[in-house]
Specification:
The chain has about 190 residues and is mostly helical. The protein contains 6 helices and 2 strands. It starts with about 20 loop residues before the first helix and ends in a 6-residue tail after the last helix.
Length: about 190
């Protein structure tokens, strides 16, 4: 029996024994699922070589976008669970290089691998969204030029940010895919 295509599975769908969610949490889960699916569909059928291509002036690649979205989502969840240190900005050339590598599908990495990583991250995020006792729970943001000094982020804002990040990069991915082979996710 062949394994399921990771671009078409819905790893975050609740099981029949889960209590039905309504309201804000259900809306956030639905938005996350929709934008994740746009990203998965955009990379469906690509070879690893195509997923590594840089078809525009940007450094972005399709495999790198999936990898980045997975890793940044994981970091925001870690932020909610452990605090601001996981979001700290790179402070040296090695840190910046590692940050840049999160936008690339590196030799030895495959699109299937980053999609599997993304599925695992999505399951973890969705489980936290379903079970976190209070969406108003907040953590302080680390010092960084892009965060207001002394700012905090609630779990609610983090989940909204993950939706926005996923949607933004799904749009980037759609442009890259159309440039590579003319395929569009929508339209």
């Amino acid at each position: 029996m062949s394994s399921p295509d990771p671009t078409t599975t819905h790893p975050t769908a609740p099981t029949p024994t889960d209590p039905p969610l309504t309201g804000e949490r259900a809306d956030l889960l639905e938005a996350l699922a929709a934008h994740r699916q746009f990203l998965r569909v955009t990379v469906r059928g690509l070879t690893d070589e195509q997923a590594r291509r840089r078809p525009t002036a940007s450094e972005l690649t399709l495999g790198g976008l999936v990898k980045h979205v997975a890793r940044i989502e994981a970091k925001w969840v870690d932020f909610l669970l452990t605090g601001p240190d996981v979001l700290a900005a790179p402070i040296n050339p090695a840190g910046y290089e590692q940050w840049a590598d999160d936008f690339r599908l590196l030799p030895g990495e495959t699109l299937a691998d980053v999609l599997a990583e993304y599925e695992a991250v999505a399951r973890r995020t969705d489980e936290l969204l379903r079970t976190l006792p209070d969406l108003d729970a907040a953590q302080p943001l680390p010092q960084a030029p892009w965060f207001e000094p002394g700012a905090r982020r609630s779990a609610r804002r983090v989940f909204v940010h993950i939706v926005a990040e996923t949607a933004q990069h799904a749009g980037h991915a759609d442009i890259l895919r159309e440039t590579i082979d003319g395929q569009r996710t929508m339209g």
